[in-house]
Amino acid sequence: MIARLVATVAGIPVPVDEVDAREAQLRNGPRAAALPLRGTSEGRQLRRWLTQLIVTQRVMSAEVAARGLTATDAPTEAELLPDVTARLEIGSVAAAALADSRARALFAAVTAAVQVSDDDVTEFHARNPLRFAPPRPGRHGWRASPVGPPLEQVRPVITGHLLGAARRRAFRVWLDARRAALVELAPGYEHPGDPRQPDNTHRH
Length: 204
Hints:
The chain is mostly helical.
């Protein structure tokens, strides 16, 4: 009997059993009560999301092997994804995949050449003079109005902020291109956001 497939990655099949196993793991986990019911539109979207995670992990694993990367000296998850905004920037699937240290080593390799210019930093500070202003204590426990710090005082933190965002953007673009080149999804397992699939509820 031929196993049913949810996708192929570089021609290598991804059987539906793999999605079943991931879903079962979630449904037996501590957050099971928050998951949508099986067989519903939301339940099918969960399976599509799991399929995206599986194929993304396979794409990353293949690239890690091709580049001869290891987890040694990989950045931490907190360094790459310091807050909710960073996770939204890179997307939930990539953020989940970056829990693996080898994937973070790949991120570092792919984005090693990304830079931000002095002009980028200067312009950001001009647009957001209070973005990194330290809190000022006021009277009776209240905070006083913040005062914009001079550029040189906050240049390192602005540079780090912009560089992190630029690297996440570059990695997302690279990953999208690799998935487009290597992944073929089976009917019923399209991307959750694909407007052509019937369970996509994002409408305009």
